[in-house]
Write a structure and sequence with these properties.
By secondary structure, the protein is α/β, with parallel strands linked by helices. It has one domain (22-198): Domain of unknown function DUF5300 (Immunoglobulin-like, Sandwich). It contains four helices and eleven strands, in the order H-E-E-E-E-E-E-E-E-E-H-E-H-H-E.
């Protein structure tokens, strides 16, 4: 295989891995995460790891078994998702699905790092604690790097059309992987749960 063919193969593989949702996002014009309204909350999903960096990741909120598209999250980016308070489930899909539970309080902003998960082959949306009680916390230098070193993205207007066409596919993915997530221990689930106190 000559050099040009090798380059073309690498580019094609990258495009296949990146997935069809990669063109659904645009850079925020302001780059600012505005505080939520008093009756709403914001969950900021960040991704910053060169490990599996070429794999596309899509984010969803699940309420009563229904999926809501949050956005696509390429490496080096973040998405600020405004939502109602209450009990929520968040799914990240990138070659496999993984989950974060949310106990969301109104008027607060929450942070999550979407990190590669060797156990599932996917990406784990992981709560960032405000009290420094875990490795992923707001007092760490990593959090400052993730917050300031990622680009804020927003869904394009064609995102809803794309999601309508692909919703059944992701609903099947959710059903398969959510049943597996139920096998986690209560301690493991607790590690994946955003607490009201994590909001700032």
């Amino acid at each position: 295989m000559n050099k040009i063919s090798k380059i073309a193969s690498v580019v094609l593989l990258f495009l296949l891995i990146q997935g069809c949702a990669s063109n659904l996002m645009t850079t925020s014009q302001t780059g600012v995460i505005a505080p939520p309204d008093n009756d709403m909350a914001t969950v900021v999903f960040m991704r910053s790891s060169m490990v599996a960096g070429a794999i596309g990741v899509e984010l969803f909120e699940i309420v009563d078994g229904e999926l809501e598209f949050i956005g696509a999250l390429p490496n080096g980016s973040k998405v600020a998702y405004k939502t109602s308070p209450g009990q929520k489930i968040y799914m990240a899909y990138g070659s496999a699905a993984d989950f974060m539970i949310g106990n969301i309080k109104e008027g607060k902003t929450y942070y999550s790092i979407v990190r590669p998960n060797w156990g599932t082959g996917g990406f784990a949306p992981t709560p960032i604690r405000s009290d420094g009680s875990t490795e992923y916390n707001m007092e760490s230098s990593d959090f400052i790097k993730w917050k300031n070193g990622t680009t804020l993205l927003e869904p394009k207007t064609n995102a809803n059309e794309w999601f309508t066409k692909n919703k059944d596919k992701y609903l099947k993915i959710y059903n398969v992987y959510w049943s597996r997530f139920q096998n986690k221990t209560e301690s493991e689930k607790s590690e994946r749960t955003l607490l009201p106190s994590d909001g700032v």
